[in-house]
């Protein structure tokens, strides 16, 4: 089956921070891939905007390098690269001053969709929104795309929402969480709400527990000072893990429409119970024989910031009362993997006797690497010698059924940018969702501060602190092994 490409309307996309790391690694290569896929109309224009002085040809060289480095095999097609670069131009602009704004205005064409991607530090979001308004670029056809982090607590998120709301209506604001752009995340909704098989079992009666893991092998890299002020809770849990939790736990929306989906997600966040301190494990990666530890990486020998977090939480509603959700994320772990695991309860009675062992259906939804899903089902072990049971994964990756095109997954950023141009907000966070997530997160962080909570050291290349394993063991459960 060949995946269908539906061209979007013509647009001007302005990337504030067009010379930055995110633009270079994700946004520009993603747009190039959409161009190659035939999704971009001939009149589409991409305007890089940052303070660095350069002309259009200088920026095209920058974009060409980004494509060659990050766009994969498609970048070898010189004609495609040339065709894409013809749509690219540059404006030197200062978000905090007047330089460049009139030039930008002259480049943005009337009667087209205008998207402004704020790929800059959050401290500049307000300045850019204000200047877009002052220069008449905040009209009804304008959309703004806002990168994470969206605030650092409830107060700052509210303030940011209020600042953006001065000049843009909620339907024009696209708060990006690239996890929502992943193919498997959308497949999760298709599997849940497009089949009769799963939904009747999707509740506390049949589900024993759910695990959500986002594990990284890397440390804080060059983001030391940012990360040390955030930690795993603010950097990963409040946004990415919370979004995954919402999609796995929400009620079926009446329609697959932006506000219907986001209303249901919001209800999940609002139904989260406060988390008991003994249901939280914080960790910090220790130094090893040949690698510095977290405190050396962030150059803060007294840092109490967590690079690992595991927690057990409950959702107070009819569907999930009594079913625990275990969330875990961390850096410098043994594998890079993101997955959601739904562990169903044991069959109520085993007709095969005690020797048959314990067998459970497990649905594993893998976001990276190798996006896909497997469902463990129990079958008879082949061969003579009586009835022995074995769990076998039923691969629901769909590549076999849908053909090789299905494997060429569209990257999250490119899918989300095309959604912005189409005006579809389903996969973007609404302002009240972000605020609700902070309202749940803030008291937990405040508790750590009040107790001067010290994260537990853990070995690099492992599975996190021992206490995280105990969090599960105490409940007679265990984490699924981290596998890349
Ligand atoms: P970055 O590499 O530091 O780039 C910042 C960009 O902003 C540069 O293009 C810079 O260019 C421009 N800039 C700085 N001050 C400016 C001003 N006064 N006026 C206009 N442009 C200005 O940052 P980044 O890593 O690309 O991150 C951008 C945003 O994405 C941040 O909010 C970050 O939190 C978020 N984000 C990044 C990643 C990632 O992987 N990089 C992932 C998730 C979220 P000039 O210096 O030339 O002006």
Structural overview:
The chain has 14 helices and 15 strands. The chain is globular, with a radius of gyration of 24 Å. With about 475 residues, the protein is an alpha/beta fold. It has 2 domains: about 10-145, Rossmann fold (3-Layer(aba) Sandwich); about 180-410 and about 430-475, Dihydrodipicolinate Reductase, domain 2 (2-Layer Sandwich). The strands form 2 sheets. It has a 9-stranded mixed β-sheet, sandwiched between helices. Helix content is about 35%, strand content about 20%. Helix 5 links the parallel strand 4 and strand 5 (about 140-145). The model has no long low-confidence stretch (mean pLDDT about 95). NADP nicotinamide-adenine-dinucleotide phosphate binds near residues 17, 94 and 121.
Order of helices and strands: EHEHHEHEHEHEHEHHEHEEEEEEHHHEH
How many extended strands? 15
Identify every distinct bound molecule in the structure, by name, code or SMILES: NADP nicotinamide-adenine-dinucleotide phosphate
Low-confidence stretches: none
Instruction: Indicate how many domains the architecture comprises.
Output: 2
What is the radius of gyration? 24 Å
CATH C-level name of the largest domain: Alpha Beta
Pathway: Carbohydrate degradation; pentose phosphate pathway; D-ribulose 5-phosphate from D-glucose 6-phosphate (oxidative stage): step 1/3
Keywords: Carbohydrate metabolism, Glucose metabolism, NADP, Oxidoreductase
Function: Catalyzes the oxidation of glucose 6-phosphate to 6-phosphogluconolactone.
Region (Disordered): 451-470
């Amino acid at each position: 089956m060949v995946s269908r490409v539906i061209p979007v309307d013509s647009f001007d996309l302005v990337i504030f921070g067009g010379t930055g790391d995110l633009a270079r690694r994700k946004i520009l290569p993603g747009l190039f891939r959409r161009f190659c896929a035939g999704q971009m109309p001939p009149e589409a224009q991409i305007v890089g905007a940052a303070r660095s002085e350069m002309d259009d040809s200088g920026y095209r060289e920058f974009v060409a390098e980004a494509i060659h480095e990050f766009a994969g095999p498609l970048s070898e097609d010189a004609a495609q690269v040339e065709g894409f670069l013809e749509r690219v131009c540059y404006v030197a602009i200062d978000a905090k001053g007047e330089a460049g704004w009139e030039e930008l205005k002259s480049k943005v064409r009337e009667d087209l969709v205008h998207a402004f991607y704020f790929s800059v530090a959050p401290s500049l979001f307000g300045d850019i929104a204000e200047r877009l308004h002052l220069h008449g670029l905040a009209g009804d056809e304008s959309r703004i795309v806002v990168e994470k982090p969206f605030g650092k607590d409830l107060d700052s998120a509210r303030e940011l929402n209020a600042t953006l709301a001065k000049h843009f209506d909620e339907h024009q604001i696209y708060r990006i969480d690239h996890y929502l752009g992943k193919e498997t995340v959308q497949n999760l909704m298709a599997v849940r709400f497009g089949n009769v098989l799963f939904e009747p079992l999707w509740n506390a009666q049949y589900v024993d527990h759910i695990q959500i893991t986002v594990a990284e092998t890397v440390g804080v890299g060059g983001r030391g000072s940012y990360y040390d002020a955030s930690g795993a809770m603010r950097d990963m849990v409040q946004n990415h893990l919370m979004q995954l939790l919402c999609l796995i736990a929400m009620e079926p929306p009446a329609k697959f429409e932006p506000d219907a989906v986001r209303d249901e997600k919001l209800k999940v966040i609002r139904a989260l119970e406060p988390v008991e301190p003994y249901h939280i494990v914080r960790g910090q990666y220790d130094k090893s024989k040949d690698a510095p530890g977290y405190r050396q990486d962030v150059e803060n020998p007294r840092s109490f910031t967590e690079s690992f977090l595991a927690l057990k939480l409950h959702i107070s509603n009819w569907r999930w009362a009594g079913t625990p959700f275990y969330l875990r994320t961390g850096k410098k772990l043994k594998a890079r993997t993101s997955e959601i695991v739904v562990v169903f309860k044991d069959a109520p009675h085993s007709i095969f006797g005690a020797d048959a062992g314990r067998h459970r259906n497990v649905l594993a939804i893998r976001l990276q690497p190798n996006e896909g899903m497997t469902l463990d089902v129990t079958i008879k072990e082949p061969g003579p010698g009586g009835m022995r049971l074995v769990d076998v994964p039923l691969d629901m990756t769909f590549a076999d059924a849908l053909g090789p095109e299905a494997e060429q997954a569209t990257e999250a950023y490119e899918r989300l940018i095309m959604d912005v141009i189409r005006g579809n907000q389903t996969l973007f966070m609404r302002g009240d969702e972000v605020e609700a997530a902070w309202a749940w997160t803030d008291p937990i962080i405040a508790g750590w501060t009040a107790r001067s909570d010290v994260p537990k050291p853990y070995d690099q290349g492992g599975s996190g602190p021992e206490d995280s394993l105990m969090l599960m063991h105490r409940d007679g459960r265990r984490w699924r092994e981290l596998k890349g």
